[in-house]
Amino acid sequence: GVQAWRAARTARQQQALQQTPAEVIAWYQKAVGAIDAELDAIPSADPGAQGWHPIGAQSLAWVQDQWLFELALHDWDIRVALDPDAEVRPSVQSAFARTLPGRLGRGFSGGDDPALVGTYRADLSGDDPFTIVMQVGNGGVTCVDGDDDSTANVTIHTDPSAFGLVTTNRRPASRFVEAGRWQTTGDQDRAEGFARAFKSY
User: What does the alpha-carbon distance between residue 184 and residue 158 come to, in Å, rounded to a whole number?
Assistant: First the structure.
């Protein structure tokens, strides 16, 4: 269960504090090898099988996406401590973008705000452009099928790194607006409120 997982994680963190950098790196490489083995087993697994996660049992496809999402995001968390201009690694941005629809709702706090109710479209640029269409209302944000820009109240033009960092509350949208990497069309009040509504992940 979650409490046992948290206790084991805390014990591992305390152990790491007593290890040399070389020992921590060796442990990390071993752990990554174990993750690689689990990921390699997913394609041949029972399609109905589930994996464990602190929020509850999830499909193996969800677990695989979650691992990618967390590795990309927490890699940034580590690197930004030394480089304030760090981005989500370019080599994973296209794949990272495709993990976002299943995770946007977790940190979104604007689902009950009548001023934010509507349809939002995010056009993510890059080597493999990707579009996410979101519906805000009924207490949350839900990703929906379709990419007809004419139905969106707001369209956001950005890149996977900027969108991911804004929607996990790691960077304000204003940082990317100033850099020309976050442009919006449509209802500007909604656009600004939407970007501010992500509180945590």
Answer: 9
